[in-house]
Amino acid sequence: MTAEQSLAFLVIGAMMVFFIWGRFRYDVIACSALMLAVAVGIVPYDHAFDGFSDDIVIIVGSALIVSAGVARSGIVDAAIQRFLPNISSVRAQLALLVITVTVLSAFIKNIGALAIMLPVAFQFARRSNVQPSVFLMPMAFGSLIGGLMTQVGTSPNIVVSRVRQELTGESFTMFDFTPVGATLALVGCIFLLFAYKLVPQRSSSQVSVHSAIEITDYTSEAVVAAGSPAIGKALSNLVKLGDGGAVVIAIFRRGLHLAPLPDVTLEAEDILIFEGGPGALDRIVSQGKLKIAGDRAPHGREKAGDEIEAIEAVVGSGSPLEGMSAQRLALFNTHNINLLAVSRQGERLKQRLGSIRLRAGDIIVLQGARRELTLFLQEFGCLPLAQREILLGTTRKAPLPLLVLAAAMGSTAVGLVPVPIAFFAAALAMVVFRIIPLRDFYRSVDGPILVMLAALIPVSDSLRTTGGTDVIAAWLGTVAAGLPPAGALTIILLAAMAVTPFLNNAATVLVMAPIAASFAGALGYKPEAFLMAVAIGAGCDFLTPIGHQCNTLVMGPGGYKFSDYPRLGLPLSVVIVIVSIPTLMLVWPLR
């Protein structure tokens, strides 16, 4: 072993130790490892930042934006309420998520399948009052397993088919992978449904500040518009859309004040006074097709930076708003701003929203152009809360995000454009079509995750450039030479699993497949089972968040630590190995 190879193993080994220790944030560790690798000479200066232009970074960042656009559209919430209104068990929800992602991943890119279902996972987590981390890691692992079932399901299958073509003159076909892949998918899904409790419930770092200021007693007003699906139905059906996060505290009908009983039949132009959190209020208003607070659209969109948004603010002591109501102030006509909701600690507000006399300490939700909101807050002595996404009162373009995502996945499925181009274009379309406001575009991208990936790519590649992978291959040949057939096949599978976190999975196949084929030939075996073992090992990185972009995609939203992945991933890897070896030997005989 050369000095460079020793240094590559030492740098990567030290980096893994710090990742598992968890004392420092993962992006800091990755960047430190990159600088150390440059300092000792195993990563050239002119290649130190190649990772920032790598396709994986583009794919993960774009997928996060596309997923945020799908979630923001409200179409996921509507679909769940319509088709799965009563699914409340955590295990039943997990079964639906994991099985759906697994099956979809057999036919479309697994990161696309995962992006489709991420918003559903967050909705289920909110409904069941659990952290999204319960669902996200099993979903990511399910997407990896699902890709094993077909030739197009994952990159390793495509690459290993090409290697077999070069070695034997015959490629694997579309469904040659299905007997083994479907068996692993079935066993893997069953395992995930019973072992999901190994995943720790962690809060995403992206929402921890928002949770600290969560307000659940806003009073808001909405009108049952003509054409609303709520007309002619009981009030309880409408309230169910909020998943228990909001209640109706008053109904006004043609000047009369009605008691908000659950069996009251709603009519057009009924005025409903709600109390609840902004998320629940938004779901009821958007899915029930209600008109919020007079439904007056602020103008001023023609100026750059004047996108319409909603913010939360506290009425300060001595504010001119004290004792004033929105009607008396002529808030919209004078300031081009809508009052969407009011929260007052320790008091339930049952009157019409526009007639509420504001007090110091009231928390209000205001909607308008950013410039006008800023001027209003300064003029009237209001203090904005920590900024978080408020969707109440925003316009939705429900089918458009799914069309954008479908176009991206369809174009990659037929080979029209590469995956990074398709997903980058889809992310851009989310802004161009105003599915995601420009101000929220970069919030959807998890910066620390992308920096970690970009820094790790050249560090991991140093194992190949210094010849470290050749050392591993030689060691494999020595160890496996005296083993029985099942043992030799196991060594190849384990080696592919071990290498893939440090190379991308396609590169792992390119490195390991020729080794596996020549190794099989030296032992007098057919190469197919060994090539399949390489593809399975390269497609099943369950131990780290860096070996596959699906694992990386859920790291930030799930709030996971590096050491969380082996908790579920290690026993799943053992299950995959135990099931794979006899299945491979049965489907692809060695002699």
From TrEMBL:
It holds the Pfam family TrkA_C. It is found in: Membrane. Its main location: membrane. Keywords: Membrane, Repeat, Transmembrane, Transmembrane helix, Transport. Coiled coil: none annotated. The chain crosses the membrane at residues 6-21, 28-45, 94-122, 134-154, 174-196, 402-435, 471-496, 502-523, 568-588. It is a multi-pass membrane protein. Residues 207-290, 298-383 form the RCK C-terminal domain. It comes from the Bacteria. This is SLC13 family permease.
